Amino acid sequence: MSEQYSNHRDTPLRRFNAFWWGLGCFGIFGLMSVIVYCATDKSADAEDLRKADRLKIRDKVDGAQSKILEGKDMSAAATKVVTPPQATETFVPGSEAHKAAMAALSAKTGGGPGFDLYTAKTCNTCHGADAKTPLAPNYPKLAGQNADYLIAQMKDFAASKRTNGQSAIMTATAVAQQLTDEDTKKISDWLSKLDPPKVELADGPGKDLYTAKLCATCHGADGNTPIMPIYPRLAGQNAQYLIDQMKAIKDGTRSNGQSAAMKALMANVSEDEIKTLAEWLEGKN
């Protein structure tokens, strides 16, 4: 049997030569690339062109601004002194105007320790100096409210028994102001003697619902004559506050005091009906 020999056998020498030839070719290619890049690099010229373009644009903007300001005396505008608006001192505690305003309000509302405490304990910040103009629609009007109801609610706030809605603010205020039972009674008595909001409760769906849902049973046909002092007066109250409280009683997030009695009735009141009732109770001035 004849043997065949190849001239292309793989030998260590052939591998060695192939490796170095490949490395040499790669190095020559890399060197040539660097030479070509350096020979054709125009980055400096490109930067000069970009700088020239920016200068042209700036000159155009300067020219346009000069035309706009042409003929106008800008030095006078630059040196003009702007007088800031002057605040009145009526609402600056301690000022004579503020003292006069508070004295007038005290005389109008009967004054006394209750009024002084209501102001000193910052109740007026959220509920208004006259207790009829709260800071926001979801805060209640307090003027003319039953004293027993107010006392019970303030005590529940302080004890964290009422936690729905804005209760956290009232709880923090009661703690920060260190309201005592005596303070609470004086403030509540003063508030109860104020004239309640004067509103007209019109005939219509709201009145019909108020009767049909048995609201009149506890709060009176006019919303202002509850059967017990521990129940609140509702007529003239902010609609949004009433909506928030009815929803909270219905879903159980407000469960203090007499809320359990309300919860049973609210089970059959829809959200649309709650809105209708609240808007009717808010009334028209």
Task: Provide a descriptive summary of the structure in words.
It is a single chain. The protein has 285 residues and is mostly helical. Among the domains are: 105 residues, Cytochrome c-like domain (Cytochrome Bc1 Complex, Chain D, domain 2, Orthogonal Bundle); 87 residues, Cytochrome c-like domain (Cytochrome Bc1 Complex, Chain D, domain 2), CATH 1.10.760. It is built from 14 helices and no strands. It is elongated, with a radius of gyration of 41 Å. The termini are far apart. The N terminus is likely disordered.
Describe the protein's topology.
Blueprint lengths: L11 H29 L2 H27 L4 H6 L16 H14 L3 H8 L2 H5 L19 H12 L8 H10 L4 H13 L11 H8 L2 H5 L19 H13 L7 H8 L4 H12 L3
Helix pairs in contact: 5-9, 7-9, 10-14, 12-13, 12-14
**What is the number of E strands?**
0
CATH topology (level 3) name of one domain:
Cytochrome Bc1 Complex, Chain D, domain 2
Global geometry: elongated
CATH class of one domain: Mainly Alpha
Mean pLDDT, to the nearest integer, reads 83
Give me the CATH architecture of one domain, please: Orthogonal Bundle
CATH homologous superfamily descriptor of one domain: Cytochrome c-like domain
- Give a short account of the largest sheet: none
Order of helices and strands: HHHHHHHHHHHHHH
Strand content: under 5%
Number of helices: 14
Give me the Rg, rounded: 41 Å
Low-confidence stretches: 1-5
Q: Which structural category fits the helices and strands?
A: mainly alpha
The percentage helix is 55-70%
* Separation of the first and last Cα atoms: 126 Å
